[in-house]
Amino acid sequence: MTEQLGLAGMPVRLFSVTPTRLTTWQDCPRRYRMTYLDRPTPQKGPPWAHNSVGAATHNALRAWWDEPLRRRTVEQAGRLVVQHWRPEGFRDDAQCDAWLQRTRDQVTTYVEAVDPHDEPVGLERTVGFPSDVLAVNGRVDRIDLRVDDSGERRGVVVDYKTGRWVPSETDARSSMALALYALGVRRVLRLPCDTVELHHVPTGTVAVARHTDESLQRHLRRAEQIGIEARDAEAQSRERPAADPMDDVFPARPGSLCSWCDFRAHCPEGQAAAPTRRSWESLAD
């Protein structure tokens, strides 16, 4: 049990969260309820093609680093994309085949710019830390080890992106998830860590942000605020009858994201707020 001492020395249970859980609450408390609390979990919609592309990219890059050094080649990266490909969510076989080739080309081009000798210190590594109210944990795509100008070894958080949006330094700096990962790297790997990077695999763009202790703490305070809201809502839900829909505790936050929600079929407000999207529509032309 994750606990800290509270008033009169009594243990206070920390609220366990991941960055994804916090973001889900921030985006839509109703989706949070359906994702993390409802049992059985409401049936989700069909798989999304963009998730298939993202999963194949992430899995191929992870597997590429797991290869022995002599096999970390551009050609092997392409083979790994094929190996990890899942034909789910695409319009038809022709679109699926075209995106397999496109994803393979993107990953191999990305790998061309990577030094296979720069061994990461973490791949899909789970890191975490306790704060005053939260027990934070999350899985980082990649953790690099680099030496700064003073000769000190430092951890760098790397997060892969595969969507249309090309991230900027502002995106990297404003990402609460990346900041929490950096704090987790400090705690788990005992490494200084203040640099976070978004690697946009389709374009090879690397968006870099360097945090200060103060900026990391600002992100942590925001995470704690969100976590407290979610924790209190969960506590209220436990006091309510099971048949209560609890829409006042977990309200919908209708908006454009409702088009892409896995639980859209169970949310009239979401259906009214945004049009239905086909499972392949978020792919770039």
Description:
A hairpin with a 5-residue loop joins strand 5 (134-147) and strand 6. The protein is an alpha/beta fold and 285 residues long. It has helices at 19-27, 29-37, 49-66, 74-84, 93-112, 169-174, 176-189, 213-238, 268-273; strands at residues 3-5, 11-13, 15-17, 122-130, 134-147, 153-161, 193-200, 205-210. Among the domains are: 49-112, no CATH class; 122-221, Lambda Exonuclease, Chain A, CATH 3.90.320.10. Helix 1 crosses helix 8 (213-238). The relative contact order is 0.16. The strands form two sheets. Strands 3, 4, 5, 6, 7 and 8 form a six-stranded mixed sheet that branches. The protein has a two-stranded antiparallel sheet with strand order 1-2. The chain is 42% helix and 19% strand. It contains nine helices and eight strands. It is globular.
List the helices and strands and how they pair.
Layout (H helix, E strand, L loop, with lengths): L2 E3 L5 E3 L1 E3 L1 H9 L1 H9 L11 H18 L7 H11 L8 H20 L9 E9 L3 E14 L5 E9 L7 H6 L1 H14 L3 E8 L4 E6 L2 H26 L29 H6 L12
Parallel strand pairs: 3-5, 6-7
Antiparallel strand pairs: 1-2, 4-5, 5-6, 7-8
